[in-house]
Amino acid sequence: MNSFDSNPATNSLISSEADSQRTLYPYVTGTSVVGIKYKDGILLAADMGGSYGSTLRYKSVERLKPVGKHSLIGASGEISDFQEIMRYLDDLILSDNMWDDGNSLGPKEVHNYLTRVMYNRRNKFNPLWNSLVLGGVKNGQKYLGTVSMIGVHYEDNHVATGFGNHLARPLLRDEWRENLTFEEGVILLEKCMRVLLYRDRSAVNKLQIAKITEEGVTISPPYSLKTFWNFSAFENPTHGAEGSW
Amino acid sequence: MDVSAGDLNAPHSMGTTIIGVTYDGGVVLGADSRTSTGMYVANRASDKITKLTDNVYMCRSGSAADSQIVSDYVRYFLHQHTIQLGQPSTVKVAANLVRLLSYNNKNMLQTGLIIGGWDKYEGGKIYGIPLGGTILEQPFAIGGSGSSYLYGFFDQAWKEGMTQEEAEQLVVKAVSLAIARDGASGGVVRTVTINSEGVTRKFYPGDKLSLWHEELEPQNSLLDILSTGSPEPMVS
């Protein structure tokens, strides 16, 4: 989908020496974010890794943040661009509050704002190198959407970024249903995050799960998942075929 | 001598080892002293720990020119900020000013920075600002090409709540280990310790450091070894 454009190796077609203002490639990156709708609202999960190329350099990066009273954002991609997006969003929420009119921006509006920002930057060949998940609840209405670095945006009952699209979404297509309880939702997300931990090179075993309901936002403290390696097939996999793997 | 372009999208390696560590009461910043242009060591005794204000210092890595100009701008802004504020700047403000420059000029700058200092509100703080302009507050930070060799070391050796002596020794040991393996790091180890009492600069020349694997005790001359050695020191 956007893999061609977001792959740094192929952007030599769109970059040249004369350009002084464009993000060529990301440096410190976060990996997948996974989000689902559940009975009371939205659940988001993301690990706390900040990779620097192939090095797992930072292991306490918070990639899930509240936005105003009704929304939650999760980001993958370049962390410095995410920090800048948070500044834009904090300004947006502040301006909204200054109206002091009793109204407040809901998740649908914030998602739309982000879409415009991301798409306009893409048109100027200077993207914010992120894939974002935006979830929230306002007046009982649950909302879950995603925006990519080129402005592709959509809503669904479950969304993910990066590797999450390939590994988590199939699991969610199979096992998600309406009105999951909080416990069921967490277990489902943890199943997705565990698979990502096994199969995504940039995953780190330290994650947070965030919940947003009509009452507000809660972001869990960092924690780690158990992993399972004790299968007989893992013990001596090349037995009878030395040199294989 | 063929130099391959390599993977252009991998982060650039930077000549230097820089470290910043918090301890119970302040921070210790450390760095090597080698500045290289290609294979040549242009300066073997550089000072990579630069003062931003009386209470905030910055470790510089990557392009010498880029890191120097960033420090010059931030020093200028912080000077004015201090006058307006009427009291010493906080470490957070200093770090965020550096971030602004790093982030907004990300396409042109190639410098990784570690900001460390002490203020009366938050005590000792370390902020890492790698390539791209991400800002991360950390209990300790490492940077520069030499830091690749220190991730495992710090995973094992770092502890919360060290004393000033423990923190300084950790920093010196770490820079020394990185110098042993990184060609782009070398020279002396410099440290700057910042706490409520002020700033202390320390200097550790090569002979003050421990020897690592396959390193030998430096001698004045072979002649000294021959005279004190066993009957058959020269083996053919």
UniProtKB/TrEMBL annotation, chain A:
InterPro entries associated with the record: Ntn_hydrolases_N (IPR029055), Proteasome_alpha (IPR050115), Proteasome_beta4 (IPR016295), Proteasome_bsu_CS (IPR016050), Proteasome_sua/b (IPR001353), Proteasome_suB-type (IPR023333)
CDD domains according to UniProt: proteasome_beta_type_4
Chief place of localization: cytoplasm
Gene Ontology biological process terms from the UniProt entry: proteolysis involved in protein catabolic process
One GO cellular component term: proteasome core complex, beta-subunit complex
Keywords from the named record: Cytoplasm, Nucleus, Proteasome
Compartments, as annotated in UniProt: Cytoplasm; Nucleus
PANTHER family in the record: PROTEASOME SUBUNIT ALPHA/BETA
Stated family: Belongs to the peptidase T1B family.
Described purpose of this protein according to its UniProt entry: Non-catalytic component of the proteasome.
Name used for this protein in its record: Proteasome subunit beta
The species this protein was found in: Olea europaea subsp. europaea
TrEMBL record, chain B:
SUPFAM superfamilies, per database record: N-terminal nucleophile aminohydrolases (Ntn hydrolases)
Domain of life: Eukaryota
InterPro entries reported for this sequence: Ntn_hydrolases_N (IPR029055), Pept_T1A_subB (IPR000243), Proteasome_bsu_CS (IPR016050), Proteasome_sua/b (IPR001353), Proteasome_suB-type (IPR023333)
CC annotations in GO: cytoplasm; nucleus; proteasome core complex, beta-subunit complex
GO biological process, one term: proteolysis involved in protein catabolic process
Pfam families for the chain: Proteasome (PF00227)
GO terms assigned for molecular function: threonine-type endopeptidase activity
Family: Belongs to the peptidase T1B family.
Name of the protein in its database record: Proteasome subunit beta
